[in-house]
Amino acid sequence: MRAPLVPILLASAPIAVAALSCAPVEEPPGRTIAAAASTPGELAASIVARVDAGVDAPNAKEASEPGHGAKIASIAMRTWIYIAPSDRSAKLGYLRAGAIVDRAEAPAGFEGCAGGWYRIPPRGFVCVGKGASLGLDHPVVQAAVRGPLRGAALPYTYVSSKSPPPHMYFRLPSAVDQRRVEGATLGIHLGQWARPPGLPLDPVPPFLMDGRDLPKPYGAEEKLRYSVHAGRAKEASAFGLVTTFEWTGRLFGLTTELDLLPLDRTKLARASAFHGVEAKGGGTPAIVGGAGSMRFTVDASGALREAGRVEHRTGVVLTGKTNPLHRGLVETSDGSWVASDALIIPDPREDPVGYARAGRKWIDISIRRQLLVAYEGTKPVYATLVSTGRGGMEDPEVTLATVRGAFAIRAKHVSSTMDGDEASLESFDLRDVPYVQYFHQGYALHGAFWHDDFGKVHSHGCVNLAPADSAWLFDWTDPVVPPEWHGAVNPEGGTLVYTHG
Is 127 in contact with 86 (CB distance < 8 Å)? Predict the structure, then answer.
């Protein structure tokens, strides 16, 4: 079987990075610890108190359904959600470490799970044990400050390693610790470093202020620990951060796997501002190609008036009208006109397995045009430029080309790790690649924050999307990932992905 295909990141060519725009940080679902009974003993005490106060105890239906105050927390990188209360049933998806979700007050069974299976919304069961806890004061829950911001172009703040890469601390290091670990020239290094503008800062997490060691979620990579650190990150690596803060006059970031990085040893990622276009009210979505195009308006006499330029890669929606007096011009949804030969316009298409004729959602990807079009039946509803494999139309078994054919999305992850061959000159380690949707073996649609070459081949075989496009598609495709979940699977297959020349 071919090894998983992953996005390009050359060790000799670090990720392009700069400041992200500063915006208020919203709390995502599943990260608020509500006042609720968190252990079986506390649950029993709460029921007794309700009876003593004259309030009815939960009935059988209430105890077996979530939504009545009881919570469960994920303490693993992947806390699997099963369709039935048994580890022999099918997996529906998973929670990420630190997520807190509603649960039923009573377990639904104990088959293959000594701690009990608890129903969670909107469906499925989670096992209390290595992956989940009824105690909301678990160290992993306390240390995991926040989860991903779903729907944002980038669900986390992202940084990439400089050379040499940063040390990974597992507790707040004192200034003395930092000099001992990083060397006597640390002061010189810090004196030459400028804080990137727009970096969001939080208070120091209380868990760290208490002087405790960061725990490792079950399933995270365990590294050999030294005095206050666990070695260095890999040379060509990138991380999603759950919080950033100042400590000893220095900026630190906490990764999703609960490693603490000095941010002066990293570079802040900048997401491409490019995005495709959605045809919300009908029409055909299209992208301006080449060097851009002049936009025109038509006055009452029918004469053309220049109305400025439309830049390369701008998205427009075409109404379907052509200009009878000026051949080659097509109308856009804002009432202006552009030259059709300056546009990348989706061709009317049908898929090879009948999704279009059945009116279902499907995705069409042209490798030659580097164009992705999302369809609902035969109607194109979104269009954007992508970056497929560098091998172009060559054989994907022997080159870095994107596989061609009709496939179905079988697994979706809000973020997921992608890495390359350790022995390769292009070895890399990308944590929390955003909005990953696997459609065939290791081939996936996913966001790319390390380049802005959309419209040109660039990847190791996956389909790279601009971050805003990857967020839109993630919410549009099936299987649906509920807000509190981090991933969903569907072995039978979700939305169709058709890749061709």
Answer: no
H helix intervals, 183-302: 186-192, 206-209
Mean pLDDT is lowest, of 46-55, 73-82, 142-151, 248-257, for 46-55
The predicted model gives 158-170 an average pLDDT of 96
CATH of domain 361-500: 2.40.440.10
Q: How confident is the model at residue 198 (pLDDT cuts 50, 70, 90)?
A: confident
Structural domain boundaries in the chain:
40-143, 157-268, 361-500
For the beta carbon of residue 135, count every other beta carbon within 10 angstroms: 15
Q: What does the block give as tokens for 289? A: 């190609």
497 token code pair = 């992905």
Q: Which residue has the tokens 């500063």?
A: 22
Block residue for tokens 């004192």: 174
Phi, psi of 51 (to 5 degrees): -65, -45
SS3 content of the chain, % helix, strand, coil (to 5): 10, 35, 55
Strand order across the 132-133 sheet:
100-102, 71-74, 132-133
Tens digits of residue pLDDT in 310-364: 999 999 999 999 988 888 999 999 999 999 999 999 999 999 999 999 999 999 9
Backbone φ, ψ for residue 472 (5° rounding): -65, -50
| 104 φ/ψ sector (left φ>0, alpha ψ -120 to 50, else beta) | beta
Strands 71-74 and 132-133: antiparallel
Question: Using one digit for the tens of pLDDT, what is the confidence trace for 49-80?
Answer: 444 544 455 577 778 899 999 999 999 999 99
Q: Is the dihedral of CA 495, 449, 240, 145 positive or negative?
A: negative
The residues, any chain, with a CB within 8 Å of residue 16's CB and separated by 6 or more, are 270, 450, 451, 452
Helix (H) or strand (E) holding 177: helix 175-182
